[in-house]
Amino acid sequence: MYVAIDDTDSQDRMCTTYIIYKIISENKYDIIGEPRLVRLNPNIGYKTRGNGALNICLGKGEGRKEVIGRTNGKIIYSYTKIKEEPDKEDLIDYVSSMVEEFYVKDNDNTNPGVVVSHNKFNRELYSLALEEDINLHFIENFLEGRAMYRKFRNGHGIIGSAASLAWPEDRYTYELLDYRYPHYDDIDHDEKMEISKLPEKYASTFNNIDFQNKYPAIFPKPKTPVIFGVRGIVKNDLINIYEEIQKNHKIEDEGYIIYKTNQGTDDHIICDPNYLSDMGSYAVTGVISGNPYTIEGGHSFTSLNYKNMEFRLAAFEPTKEFRKILLSLVPGDIVTAYGSYQKGTIKLEKIKLVKKAPVYIKEVPVCSVCHVKTKSKGKMDFRCPSCHRRYKNPVYVEKYREINEGFYEVPVIARRHLSMPIKLAGYFYGNGNQSGVI
Length: 438
Prior knowledge:
The protein has 438 residues and is α+β, with helices and mostly antiparallel strands.
């Protein structure tokens, strides 16, 4: 039996994943398969942080066991097969009691929802939840006759809950989340930086640390029950990293859970659309049509022609050194831009310089006899300083450009959960890391 929950936290407190941890650690039901953390449309204005919903399959399990976590020193296993499903009413009552205990009650924008279903849903709902802002009435109609649900307050969380059960799991990564509740931030910044370096030894991990901006990315900014989270594509590597962190730093915790997730998959990106709408995220290939510029506040822009449309590309101040890439583009460059679209602007997550345009600069001619540069004596008059031979026209030479063709991405400090890091392109598509260098 699948159960999904969403919208139990606020911008600065709690985390929906912790409720899943508590459900798992109480051991009332067996876990079938892997717990899932599903990120949805990153452009939703009222989302809390990463806009993630959770689901798990619960019941009486059988078959091969697999490690998915640890609680109070004991290993947590999941089963590959379900032998017996729980009573749906008992299950939703139990999960709802956990939500009631932990959700943030003093924030009007927190509106939890629980969905319980025998089956997962069609992937179209997942796609819709990545591209649009689905309304509550639509989801209630969708769930009618399909699943049981329970709403807290206005119950907006049933939207994300239902959508998480429609994730087809075509592409996936993993994240190990370590917990303590209540969690007080008692690790100083320097130690966080040291801890964040440990996962970097494993090629299977990503988005661990931003050295240039001194950002320990495995540690969440808000005060949530999550102490740290390590992302990767190999589950055993995540377990080894956890053990190494505990060995070297002895962090006091309750335990951890490893989630299967759509993070780092680019599932939110729609390629080469015929039109772009607000709330959507796209990959579009076009031609740079203007010179880049920077406005007050440090936000940088340029313009792009795409299928007879023109819109802006934006690298906002939080993208830090990535702005240098956008400012290096010139009219005529062919690029593929990745990012969310709103009001005529694509907010860049990464960009591929497909083809550099040549840039020519005007120089004085070189004397064909003496092989030295001439000197300008006025309009259309260049003289050799040695033999005084006269030349009428300047010459145009191609200027060297430091930027190379290839992929460029925003630094880890500005990276979205869903955005695929360049290093994972080879894993998902087999085309290697073809990044540019500037």
